[in-house]
């Protein structure tokens, strides 16, 4: 890593929360040379006064972008009208990583499911005794995780559409699963979102893509380095067996991950692992013991003949549709709603009624959009912004032998900090009410 790459340059750090603080700490701790370092933020940052870093805040914090040579932008900050004229100066953490890291990177993206895929690939490689580093889309920023002085066999990196928007990279393997409308408030148009996702395929030595996605976007005509997985893919399943290039490997029952979409995740992990020379017995053993990640169709508890599932990660109508398909017609209570991102909920609400779900909890503000699609609904409705009230409603009204499902089809930010907080509050409310019932 060349520490002189910013020598005599004016550097700005634009963003909020973890990422811009991470960028600042990285530049200061690694003794980069620069002429001037400035933080741009809407709010005052008095704690920076002792660091010697310049600060521009409040309504004029974007007024002097022309004076900077490099603008470090947090991935979640959209390209506003003020930023667009300076797009050539903008640098993100993930772009800096790809510019400076010389080892083998496995990059993973999907509209939903990328965290499970990323974690499963990482776990297989770790179990195969590779030196492997895991970098998430959320949680710790990449510059907090990567030591550029350390050599890894592989870095497994989860990428969001925000990160991929203008990313230029060269890497070893890229993985692309499903694409459906997500983050429309950020990208503006579905086509822009699709192009951001497809950007992951550029500059890769090998691409692993869901066969359905290859067909839908005509990718086989554009890339000659694609290996497919899932239904109709090279890595797939048939007659109760995982199959690779027509050869049966092991039973599809030999896994802890449930639901059909995870069979696709496993077929992908098998394809990547075999490409990297991992013995099939190591792959098999990892898949038999991999439990998945929290808040992803996670079984919380079965109490009083009601089964509670936490699918807090499902924040689009498409992902909640897949959750309902997984349970067929066993869901009797569903929790829906949250931040309004302009999604089309008609298919979801149609399925809710087709599956005879009798109890719906609506969270604001997207509840108003969903509710208008209910036609002659005869069940029970609760409108609330309190998880405790929602869970209490489910305990009273869910039919015995049926499922209560938290899968809101909307992001969490209107009511909770993130989907993790939403899921954890759901679990805690279940435990509290169940414990109270047992004490009576």
Structure, described:
The longest helix is centred in the C-terminal third of the chain and has 21 residues, at 419-439. α11 packs parallel to α12 (346-354). β10 (204-210), α8 (211-216) and β11 form a beta-alpha-beta unit. This protein folds into three domains: 10-91, NAD(P)-binding Rossmann-like Domain (Rossmann fold), CATH 3.40.50.720; 95-289, Mur-like, catalytic domain (UDP-N-acetylmuramoyl-L-alanine:D-glutamate ligase, 3-Layer(aba) Sandwich); 298-439, Protein-Tyrosine Phosphatase, Chain A (Alpha-Beta Complex), CATH 3.90.190.20. The model has no long low-confidence stretch (mean pLDDT 89). It has 440 residues and is an alpha/beta fold. The chain has 15 helices and 20 strands. 33% of the residues lie in helices and 22% in strands.
Which SSEs are present, and which pair or pack?
Blueprint (H helix, E strand, L loop, with lengths): L9 E5 L2 H13 L6 E6 L12 E4 L12 E4 L16 E2 L1 H8 L4 E5 L4 H14 L4 E4 L6 H4 L8 E5 L2 H4 L6 E6 L7 H4 L2 H9 L5 E7 H6 L9 E4 L5 E4 L2 E4 L2 E5 L8 H16 L4 H10 L8 E6 L2 E5 L6 H11 L3 E7 L8 H9 L4 E5 L3 H5 L8 E4 L3 H11 L5 E4 L12 H21 L1
Parallel strand pairs: 1-2, 1-4, 2-3, 4-5, 6-8, 6-9, 7-8, 9-10, 10-11, 16-20, 17-18, 17-20, 18-19
Antiparallel strand pairs: 12-13, 13-14, 15-16
């Amino acid at each position: 890593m060349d520490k002189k790459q910013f020598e005599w340059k004016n550097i700005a750090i634009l963003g909020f929360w973890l990422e811009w603080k991470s960028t600042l700490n990285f530049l200061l701790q690694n003794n980069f040379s620069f002429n001037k370092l400035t933080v741009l933020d809407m709010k005052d940052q008095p704690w920076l006064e002792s660091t010697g870093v310049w600060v521009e805040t409040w309504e004029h914090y974007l007024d002097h972008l022309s004076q900077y040579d490099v603008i470090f932008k947090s991935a979640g900050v959209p390209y506003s009208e003020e930023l667009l004229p300076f797009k050539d100066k903008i640098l993100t953490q993930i772009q800096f990583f790809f510019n400076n890291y010389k080892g083998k990177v496995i990059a993973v993206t999907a509209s939903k499911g990328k965290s499970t895929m990323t974690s499963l690939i990482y776990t297989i490689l770790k179990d195969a005794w590779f030196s492997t580093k895991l970098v998430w889309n959320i949680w710790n920023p990449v510059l907090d995780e990567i030591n550029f002085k350390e050599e890894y066999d592989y870095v497994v990196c989860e990428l969001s559409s925000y990160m991929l928007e203008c990313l230029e990279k060269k890497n070893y393997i890229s993985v692309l699963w499903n694409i459906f409308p997500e983050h429309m408030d950020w990208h503006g148009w579905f086509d822009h979102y699709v192009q951001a996702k497809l950007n992951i395929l550029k500059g890769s030595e090998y691409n692993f893509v869901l066969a359905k996605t290859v067909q839908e976007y005509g990718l086989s005509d554009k890339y000659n380095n694609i290996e497919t997985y899932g239904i109709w893919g090279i890595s797939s399943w048939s007659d109760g067996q995982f199959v690779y290039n027509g050869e049966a490997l092991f039973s599809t029952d030999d896994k802890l991950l449930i639901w059909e979409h995870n069979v696709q995740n496993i077929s992908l992990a098998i394809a990547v692992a075999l490409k990297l020379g991992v013995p099939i017995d190591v792959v098999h053993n990892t898949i038999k013991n991999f439990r998945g990640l929290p808040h992803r169709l996670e079984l919380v508890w079965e109490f009083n003949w009601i089964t509670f599932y936490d699918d807090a990660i499902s924040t689009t109508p498409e992902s909640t549709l897949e959750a309902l398909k997984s349970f067929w017609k066993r869901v009797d209570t569903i929790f829906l709603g949250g931040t309004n991102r302009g999604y089309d909920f008609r298919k979801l609400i149609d399925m809710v009624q087709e599956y005879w779900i009798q109890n719906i909890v609506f969270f604001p503000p997207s509840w108003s959009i969903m509710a208008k699609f209910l036609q002659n609904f005869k069940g029970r409705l609760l409108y609330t912004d309190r998880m405790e009230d929602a869970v209490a409603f489910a305990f009273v009204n869910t039919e015995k032998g049926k499922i209560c499902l938290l899968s809101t089809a909307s992001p969490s930010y209107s009511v909770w900090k993130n989907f993790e907080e939403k899921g954890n509050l759901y679990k805690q409310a279940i435990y509290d009410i169940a414990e109270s019932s047992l004490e009576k």
